[in-house]
DNA sequence: GGGACGATGTCCT
DNA sequence: GGACATCGTCCCC
């Protein structure tokens, strides 16, 4: 990251809860460029979010919330700004942030990829990869930031061990949408958003 | 109770 | 491009 940009960030302050109290898809798009901040024993790490997917509620067949609130996705029916973390394929953790308008019963955004901006060397202790690959894809992202199931239900607005803070979009960066990755239902919905051309995006649209 | 199946990543050919 | 690791959840028998 450029020093100029770093100077503009006076403090890593979590984004307020109201940011997430809007239509899931709208929040998803605006999450691009924001910072996912991780603090472990006074070590600071942050990635700039480059790829996300919106998952809605009872009307989205691809969503874990599709079958109702009595399953693993019950967090998605709760208050906004909290993390929904689940184990994928028995191997990888994936992290979502709950976001929905007051009209929506459920909704969350899967954070798929990020670009390391702070603490890359520390991240490598958890996942030793080059910068473009270390947080590319939902499983790699959680591995590089040492996020596991204990963060399911964690408040991402508290500003403690894990939170989201204001970031930036670089000049000329464009946001594009595409269909979501790895799903077998509702494959027509273009609810994946990414920063075009960024090397950390997991699968080019 | 049991089996199929993932919002994936890696390694092999 | 394909096999497979690996386990929680869900759905059906």
Describe the structure.
The chain is globular. It is 16% helix and 27% strand. With 205 residues, the chain is α+β, with helices and mostly antiparallel strands. The structure holds a DNA duplex (13 and 13 nucleotides).
Stated plainly, the CATH topology is called 3-methyladenine DNA Glycosylase, Chain A
Instruction: Please identify the top-level CATH class.
Output: Alpha Beta
Task: Kindly name the structural category.
Answer: alpha+beta
Average pLDDT works out at 95
So what's the overall shape? globular
What is the CATH superfamily classification?
Methylpurine-DNA glycosylase (MPG)
Strand content: 25-35%
Domain count, please report it.
1
Number of strands: 8
The ordered H/E elements are HHEEEEEHHHEEE
* Radius of gyration (Å): 16 Å
Give the % helix. 10-25%
Topology:
Elements: H1 3-8, H2 24-31, E1 35-40, E2 43-55, E3 83-88, E4 92-98, E5 108-118, H3 120-126, H4 131-134, H5 138-144, E6 162-165, E7 175-178, E8 192-195
Antiparallel strand pairs: 1-2, 1-6, 2-5, 2-8, 3-4, 4-5, 7-8
The protein binds a DNA duplex (13 and 13 nucleotides) through strand 3, strand 4 and helix 5.
Structural key phrases:
alpha+beta; 3-methyladenine DNA Glycosylase, Chain A; 8-stranded antiparallel sheet; globular; DNA-binding
